Amino acid sequence: MKRKLLCTLLAAASLICAVPVHAAAASERTVPVQVDGEILSGVSTLRAGVTYVPLRTLLESFGDWDVWWDAQSEAAKAATDGFHITADPAEGTITVNGITYLGIVFVQNGRTYVPLRLLVTQLGGGVAWDPYLGGAAVSSPEAEYDAADLYWLSRIISAESRGESLKGQIAVGNVVLNRVAEDDFPDTIPAVIFDRKNGTQFQPVDNGTVYQTPTALSVEAARQVLNGEVVLEDALYFYAPALSQGTWINSNRTYLTTIGCHRFYR
What we know:
By secondary structure, the protein is an alpha+beta fold. It has helices spanning 2-27, 55-62, 116-122, 147-161, 166-181, 189-193, 203-207, 216-226, 247-252, and strands at residues 29-31, 33-35, 38-39, 44-47, 50-54, 66-70, 75-80, 83-88, 93-96, 99-102, 106-108, 111-115, 126-130, 135-139, 237-239, 255-259, 262-265. It has two domains: 29-139, Copper Amine Oxidase, Chain A, domain 1 (2-Layer Sandwich); 147-265, Arc Repressor Mutant, subunit A (Orthogonal Bundle).
């Protein structure tokens, strides 16, 4: 009788313990993470609202970091000028320059995973959730630009004006930033690009080319635009006559100039 009761209790306990495991597995999914406009290689995961990334992959994207596994302490360690990190899976802690923070650390497929926001913010970088990417945008500690701004601006420039001169590509970028400054449009670069208030504003959003890897020239154009380079100060619209009649623009907006294959309007 006692043996039967013990087995019953053990079975019940096993069932109870199994529930959180299944719940955690169900809530975990792979998500993209981009750093300074470049998608991070390797698998990053979202667990219970927290994004976890491989420590080595993240830090190497920041630049000159040494990352290693310390077999004696059974923890991952990393160092660069001015910073030393210990990520301890057993303790569930991350120590940055002697200050310890609680945070789940786990090893999976030979990689040590750490909570993205916790580590990046302690290193002086920035992390934001990008709903258009469906993942995290990371601005490294030494970044000159917001990661989401560079990521999407370079992609819309490339999708709209791939093959145009640098001047023509900067002009397309100017249109985006000019809209950000106008009250009639959203107030961030990604929101302007994906604006659908009066219908899709940029065709690459509909045909999917905005998600393609940008050309090197388009990335350079985006950087120059974010640095304040201006080719067209007032332009808010453009179209390519070879691809569109531009009926509404021609009837309702003021023509400014033509650069390459694009006509620009205020």
